[in-house]
Amino acid sequence: MSKLAPLDDLVKQYKQFDYHNDPQLKKRLHEAQQWLKNRIQVTHQDLFNETQNQLMAQYFLNRLYGGPEFDALAKQIERLVKIAHKAEKMVPENTILTGIQSVGLAVLAMRLDQEVAKQLLEDYPADQAIDDEMMRLTLIKLDQRQARLQQLDLLDGLGVSLDKYLRSFIVHTAFKMCKGPAHKYKFDLMYDFIGEGFAAMKPLKSATKFIQSFTTKERIIVDNVHSGQANPFRV
Known about the structure:
The protein is an all-alpha fold and about 240 residues long. It contains 13 helices and no strands. Pfam families: DUF8198 (PF26621).
């Protein structure tokens, strides 16, 4: 079986999301994602503001938590899977595996956020601005605790993979050599998606340490929400 097969499964999951055919849900989803990104920026302001962490912070916000180009990226992934036998010869195996982890996290984030958006539409007027209390009550009602903790566990796993695989000079050099073919055959978004991970890694001593600092606070927030704290997002 092709090493790219998991990407095909992820794209199939992504294409089944209801918001693709529901403009109102899509709008609410984007609003919920923006609330989440704003909250993450506030929660992790000190971590994100450190000079060496800024690229990784942007990778989190723009890629792993619902990037604006994911529709186009998904189409490129579909095309890439169809020529898997060629792609696997060009792209280092460890880069493929790490890319799959990153795409999987992005798809999981959108699935969970779509659930949030649906619940918001059910409980509140579609044009009501999302605030902390709305989100607190929505998260309690959905009871996403285990799914959100799984998301954080997967993030920790990505940190280990980034340190283990993407720090290799040989892997990095091989990946850079793929840039020409990637752009020639219009796989530029997929290349950039992985390439931003490489770039974000460069200033860091350890991606694992950065991500664990992030997930430690996020686990506190998950626990705060589901233990009924009045202001769970203030950590």
